[in-house]
Amino acid sequence: MSLLYIGQQITIFGGYLMIIAGIFGNIMNIIIFTTVRTYRTNPGTFYFLSASINNLIYIIENLPFRILSVGYNIDFTIESTFWCKFRNYQYVMLGPISYTCICLATIDQYFVSSLNPHIRHMSNIKWSHRILIIIIIIWCLHAIPVFLYVNNVPPNSICINANAIYRVYMTIFGVVFLCAIPVGISLIFGYLTYQNIQQTKTLVEQHADRQIIRMTFVQILLMIIADVPYTVFSIYLSITNQRLKSYDQQVNEYVIMQFAMLISYICFVANFYMFWISSSRFRQTAKKKLFCWKKESIVFPSHT
């Protein structure tokens, strides 16, 4: 059994598992965050809702085709130039939107837990709506160069970034904007939020929600787990790109990269399950939606 075969099987079975878990989890997030009033009117959970919708689209448009390409050697990007460009466009556009939402949720928890009333006032649901629209527009515009530089390259019509400068930029962008900056912002504002919590006896005085803060913290942890392996190995590949490598070393690096890319999907898949673990209120709400454990009492008129 070759290492390449093992890598393919990991992608196939791990990918299927992530598709099922990700679609179910994000749909549950969307249902909960849109039907529970305390969540619906909270800027932090509005960002979680937006990330969940984005994650659902990201999973549906990426994971199935990744399984086909890596696991079964069926690559539709070779057959269609439009799909080659469009798939890379939405990959470059959708990923940053989710990471930005996580950062904004972390910043909002700092605002809402602050002792300063002016800073607390910056946590505003109307502002959150406007900020999200601006963020979506920015990332949509940022991904437009994909249509110019990503193409099917002969003789095998492989879908790649054909521009050397843009290729270097995208490597730097992945390391800086999809790992270093999101993790850095989340850690900084997560620490500042923790400091705010320590300075007050009760978060009720600040209209803050301890459970939503915990949900934000576990989302930060999830982002670190998902991003760091892929980012570290991407840096290694960039540094060693010009070195002469044996076939076995190339296979080893290919398998490790596929595994790291699969792990990177955790950030888009596992948020519902982390919310379930970290928040008792979220857990009880999810149980009601799933199992109808607590049905509303219905009083029937008596017949005399």
UniProtKB/TrEMBL annotation:
Topology of this chain in the membrane: Multi-pass membrane protein
Protein origin, superkingdom: Eukaryota
GO-annotated cellular components: plasma membrane
Signal sequence coordinates: none
Residue span, G-protein coupled receptors family 1 profile domain: 25-275
Single GO molecular function: G protein-coupled receptor activity
UniProt-listed Gene3D superfamilies: Rhodopsin 7-helix transmembrane proteins
InterPro entries reported for this sequence: GPCR_Rhodpsn (IPR000276), GPCR_Rhodpsn_7TM (IPR017452)
Bilayer-spanning residue ranges: 12-34, 46-69, 89-111, 131-150, 170-194, 215-239, 259-279
Keywords: G-protein coupled receptor, Membrane, Receptor, Transducer, Transmembrane, Transmembrane helix
Subcellular location: Membrane
UniProt keyword Signal present: no
The name this protein goes by in its record: G-protein coupled receptors family 1 profile domain-containing protein
Organism of derivation: Adineta ricciae (Rotifer)
